[in-house]
UniProtKB/TrEMBL annotation:
Keywords: Isomerase
Classification of source organism: Bacteria, Bacillati, Chloroflexota, Anaerolineae, Anaerolineales
InterPro entries associated with the record: IolE/XylAMocC-like (IPR050312), Xyl_isomerase-like_sf (IPR036237), Xyl_isomerase-like_TIM-brl (IPR013022)
Pfam families per record: AP_endonuc_2
Bilayer-crossing regions: none
Domain Xylose isomerase-like TIM barrel as annotated: residue spans: 47-279
Protein name per the record: Xylose isomerase
GO molecular function list: isomerase activity
Length: 289
């Protein structure tokens, strides 16, 4: 069994979008956490806020210096994508091309941040069209992006969404089908524990049905919906940790505590979640010689 530790914990910066990036880094430091799942959105970083690519890259380099000066690292770049106008399953060709270009730039940005993973979702289909039509567009788009990712040495990490977010990939069944149909080593699975609980799936099912493909976890509490502070919901978080360890999981668990009720005080949401996890996880695990 591979034991987890606080070294496996990362934090998604999205809940800090009402504060400065410096505040976010200081909060991470106070929580004694070092791994960042960087949300690519204003005001911290969004490539479309810059007039030239050179200006965007200079901003990334400056952010990376801030991060590394505190002994931290970006483990994944997560571009904003659940809102208009980004949708890889969009019906109009121009809409879809814009979305593919957006993720291609995200892969380039991730490498500049020192990360080799980019978070992605399936997109969604129109409610008045056959679901299979949108599904096929999503598969085709992911296939095209994975071909680019393979050349760039980047992995795309896809998760299930909640049914209110998408009518495409929302279950373990959908995840298995999507990874099989795209069939690229560049596409990996992230399990969102809240979305999993909403549809009644079990964490063990993902490991049983996707051996070697579960490479990231979005960790939060819920009831079962919501993305709450660890301990504020009713999800069996200790049981999830045991399942991860039993399956030799050694990747990151991102604290995705992004409910709007925490936006006014994002530090407390992470500090309390880290405190909760420290009841169960050591700070670090000694590596075998």
């Amino acid at each position: 069994m591979i034991p987890l530790s606080m070294d496996n914990i990362s934090v998604m910066s999205v809940q800090y979008w009402h504060t400065s990036f410096e505040y976010f880094l200081s909060s991470m430091e106070r929580c004694q956490l070092k791994n960042i799942e960087l949300w690519a959105g204003a005001p911290h970083y969004s490539y479309d806020c810059f007039e030239t690519r050179a200006e965007a890259e200079a901003h990334i380099r400056a952010m990376r210096r801030q991060i590394e000066a505190r002994g931290m690292q970006v483990v994944m770049l997560t571009p904003e994508q659940l809102n208009y106008p980004i949708n890889i399953a969009g019906r109009e060709a121009g809409y879809r091309k814009k979305s593919l270009d957006y993720f291609t730039r995200a892969m380039e940005d991730a490498l500049l941040f020192g990360a080799d993973r980019v978070f992605i979702t399936s997109g969604w289909g129109l409610l008045d069209e056959p679901r299979e039509d949108a599904w096929r567009r999503s598969v085709d788009s992911l296939g095209e992006l994975c071909a680019r990712a393979e050349k760039m040495g980047v992995s795309l990490v896809i998760e299930q969404l909640q049914p209110y977010e998408s009518n495409l990939l929302t279950t373990c069944d959908d995840m298995v089908r999507m990874l099989n149909e795209v069939s690229s080593p560049a596409l990996q699975c992230c399990v969102d524990l809240v979305a999993m609980a909403v549809v009644g799936d079990e964490l063990q099912d993902f490991f049983d049905r996707l051996p070697g493909k579960v490479r990231h976890i979005h960790f939060a509490d819920g009831n079962p919906s919501g993305h709450f502070i660890c301990g504020d919901g009713n999800l069996p978080l200790r049981g999830y940790l045991a399942t991860l360890e039993a399956n030799q999981y050694s990747g990151y668990l991102t604290l995705e505590i992004n409910d709007s009720i925490y936006w006014d005080d994002p530090h407390t949401s992470i500090a309390r979640s880290a405190e909760f996890l420290r009841r169960w996880l050591p700070e670090t695990v000694e590596k075998a010689a």
